[in-house]
Amino acid sequence: MRILPFLLFFLLLNSCKEETPKQRKINGVSFVATRDAITQRQALAVKQINTNSVALMPFGFIKELDHPEIMFNSERQWFGERKEGIAQNKKVFDSLGIEVMLKPQLWVSHGVFTGDIAMTTEENWQAFETSYKAFVLYFAEVASELNIPIFCLGTELNNFAVNRPDFFKKLIAEVRKVYAGKLTYAENWDVYQTIPFWKDLDFIGIDAYFPLSEEKTPSASTLKKSWKPFKEEMEQLSEQVNKPILFTEYGYRSIDYVAKAPWEHHRTDEQANLKAQQIALTALYETFWDEPWFAGGFLWKWFPNENAGGEKDNRFTVQNKPALDVVKKYYTE
Q: Are 25 and 289 in contact (CB under 8 A)?
């Protein structure tokens, strides 16, 4: 009988201990803009794989790598890339409890890589900075007006970001004057460590197309082993600047040699390898999704067309492919 009070105290003490809550990850997809308003059905397809966030991506266009003028929010652009389209998309996703990251980005004519943008004169640099500032601040104000929780102020602009760091630091300060949400910038996997302004943002944004294997269909264990040095570098940077890592883009094509050069998008006539996409995504989720310094990511990419993808498709989307079940499995909270 003397033991009873001690046992009651012990049980009470343990019942009062709170488990550390699991960090909520951003389980996102990159949602391709539409010609017309999106429907509830199109948004539900995203919700059904446990997605809790989408990236909306309005584009600005420049003619050449050294052309300083950006054209954006034009009536010629699709509905989903204009302010009214972003507002309509946001309203539909809000109704399903899906948050939004607004991610305006540039497109150079003929799909030339944006990381190579470089002006040939100081005059053109200043003109480009003025144009880019107008582009970013316009959408930052849209994000503020619509209460969008994350804003990405650039994507894969390494030449620009590294050579004009003062401009970006001032731009970040200007954005914060009109927008109170979280900020990030999306840099490519091979140069993200060169960005000098991570401390000024809320997330370290990485487009995570890391080369991991030259095998036709690598195993998950092979890929996880290859991820290790890249993961260690990311964790070190996260610790150094005290900011979480966010995969602003990640994904794999359903194709042979899936992890050799995951950024490669030009091979169009090769047979699909659905298994390789499944394995690569599984390895990525098992490597990162439980890490406390990792915020989550946005899968590249999701089309509003319910017939997108399919078993013969070798592109990035997981729609109507076995990899869809992989995403759904790991996109849990």
A: yes
